[in-house]
Each structure stands twice: as structure tokens, then as C-alpha cells.
Specification:
Blueprint (H helix, E strand, L loop, with lengths): L7 E4 L20 E2 L11 E2 L11 E7 L4 H7 L9 E6 L9 E5 L5 E4 L5 E10 L2 H6 L6 E10 L3 E9 L5 E7 L18 E6 L5 E2 L4 E4 L16 H4 L9 E4 L8 E2 L4 E5 L20 E3 L12 E4 L7
Parallel strand pairs: 4-10, 17-18, 18-19
Antiparallel strand pairs: 1-14, 2-3, 4-7, 5-6, 5-8, 8-9, 9-10, 11-12, 12-17, 13-16, 14-15, 15-19
């Protein structure tokens, strides 16, 4: 990601919650250069193997996380979550839908991707419950979902745990944090069309006034610190969250209510971005926008206030 925000993190301050969120693999043509020790000028070009015979296979088994054994038992899912939709995305590729691999789990929750590229993937899993399954849970669960990141190599086989949805407070319901290719925008680096959406998942009104929204340290990126042992002390610091970017919702208490099961859209810049690229969103209807984003300020949309060490710019 370039400028903007990534991986936001909502801090509940004074919230009145009751406790409660097929793509064909592509290969880059590679030429292998072999230089003999006696004649460094000799070059042999090898045509890359474009077949899928040597591509790694990924197998994912979806299981209910251990704190929810009773739920798994009630639904007969003790061996795995049947019919779960599993989506896999190679993190170095764009986030457009065509770059996601999709597979459906079998009766034991096993989803197979027979041929994908090696690399770091993020895995997203969801399984909505059918009406009769909802009844089996006492009308307490509508869906199970989960995800993780993993490196994929030849013959990779991993488990991904899912947890049930449950009533609570604010959750993030949508992210749009990618930027268009410069080839799409005529050479312009354009990042102002990013936005996030939050959802009131409780049965009472929540007031957004004064709540904090920020970007956690490391921006949730892949980096030389992956896996995370080297950064564990920072990420799990009991004193709080390490971050440079923090924004605060405006208002003094009752100014910005969010009713039960309603959403609020926070734009990086609350303007019509279709003038830059037709597929970008019109965000003039946003509920809030980030101040100091470097874009055009919409005077009709309230600004979040920058209070962190660095502005969202």
C-alpha cells in the first residue's frame, strides 16, 4: 500500500455494548541463464515450464475453533465445517476479485486448490448457516467465519479455524483500501478513493462521538518481520496499541448516533472519484471523511480529527 490507511483498528471508548464480527494461476516468463566456468560467454536459454504439473497444491480444512465445541457438536461439525467457502489471495497481487482463488469445502470441511503459485497468501473463510442450522443453535448464530495468512509451497496443507458471529458492538463491515494501477489512471498514482465501513452489530444505538480509529503498527503488511516472533513484544504490549496514526470522531456525545444494524461510511476523501477512473466509487454520500488526507475536502461531510503522531496524509 502507498499513502493512506491500512488495517484500521477501532477503539471502543465509553461504548455501551453488551459484549460483542477461480482464478487461473499466472506465471511470469523466466529465462534461466547458465554460464559455464570455462566460457563465461556461453548462455543457454531455457523455456519456462508453463504446465501446472509443478505448481503447488493447497489444501485447507475448515474447523470450528476450540472455544465453540458445543456449537460444532450441535451442528454435527466435529470433523470440519461442510460447504465452507474458502478464498485464497496471493498478497503480492491486486485485490480485484479476479485475483482471488475460490474453493468450497467438502463434507469434512476440506477445500482444495490443485494448482496455485507459491507465496504468502491470505485465506478468508465464511459459511452462512441454513435456516434449520440457525434453529439448531437456538437462533444464536447466523454465520461462522475466519481467516489467516500462510506461506504456500508444494503440498501445503493447513487448517483454518472459524468462529460464530455474535451480538455486540461496532465491527468493520467493509474495507476498500486498494489503489488502481497507474496504467488505468494514465500514469497517476491515486489513493484517495479508499474507505472503510463500520456496522452497529448490537441492539442499541451507539454514539460514535469521540471514538478512536487508527492504524496498527506495521500496517498489517508482510515484511522481514514475518513470522511475527520479532515483533511480538510490540504487538502484544499490555500497555496498549503501538501506532502513529489515530483519528477521533467528531462530536460531544449525542451528535453522531448509529442505530442498531446501521452502517457508517468513512471516506479518505468524500468526493466523486469516478472522474479519475470509472470503476472508482462516488463517496460524496459518506458519513465522515479523514481530515488532512491531501484530497479535496467535502464541506458537507464531517471530518475525523487527527490526534496521532502523524496525520493521515
Amino acid at each position: 500500500m502507498d499513502s493512506g490507511f491500512t488495517g484500521p483498528l477501532m477503539t471502543q471508548i465509553g461504548a455501551d455494548s453488551r459484549g460483542f464480527v477461480p482464478v487461473t494461476p499466472r506465471r511470469s516468463a523466466v529465462c534461466l541463464l547458465l554460464l559455464t566456468s570455462c566460457d563465461p560467454g556461453e548462455v543457454v536459454l531455457l523455456v519456462p515450464d508453463k504446465s501446472d504439473d509443478h505448481a503447488p497444491a493447497l489444501t485447507i480444512q475448515v474447523v470450528v475453533d476450540t472455544p465453540y465445541v458445543a456449537l460444532a457438536t450441535a451442528l454435527g461439525w466435529t470433523d470440519g465445517v461442510p460447504g465452507a467457502q474458502v478464498r485464497a489471495h496471493l498478497m503480492k497481487e491486486p485485490y480485484d476479485e479476479e485475483y482471488w482463488h475460490v474453493a468450497t469445502g467438502d463434507s469434512l470441511g476440506v477445500a482444495r486448490f490443485p494448482s496455485i503459485l507459491s507465496g504468502l497468501y491470505e485465506i478468508a473463510v465464511r459459511r452462512p448457516l441454513r435456516p434449520e442450522e440457525v434453529t439448531q443453535t437456538g437462533d444464536a448464530t447466523r454465520m461462522v467465519a475466519g481467516g489467516r495468512r500462510m506461506y504456500v509451497s508444494q503440498g501445503a496443507e493447513q487448517a483454518v479455524t472459524v468462529v460464530p458471529d455474535h451480538g455486540g458492538s461496532l465491527i468493520f463491515s467493509e474495507f476498500a483500501l486498494v489503489t488502481p494501477w497507474e496504467s488505468e489512471t494514465g500514469g497517476i498514482t491515486y489513493w484517495l478513493a479508499k474507505y472503510i465501513e463500520i456496522y452497529n452489530n448490537s441492539d442499541t444505538t451507539i454514539y460514535l462521538d469521540g471514538k478512536l480509529l487508527g492504524t496498527a503498527w506495521l500496517w498489517n503488511r508482510d515484511s522481514p518481520f514475518w513470522p511475527c516472533a520479532q515483533t511480538e513484544a510490540v504487538r502484544n504490549d499490555p500497555a496498549g496499541i503501538w501506532t502513529e496514526w489515530v483519528a477521533r470522531f467528531p462530536g460531544d456525545g449525542p451528535d453522531h448516533p448509529l442505530a442498531p444494524h446501521q452502517t457508517a461510511l468513512i471516506a479518505l476523501s468524500a468526493i466523486d472519484h469516478r472522474a479519475v477512473l470509472a470503476k472508482l466509487p462516488d463517496l460524496r454520500h459518506a458519513d465522515f471523511e479523514f481530515a488532512g488526507s491531501g484530497g479535496v475536502d467535502n464541506p458537507d461531510v464531517p471530518n475525523l480529527e487527527d490526534i496521532g503522531l502523524r496525520p493521515y496524509a
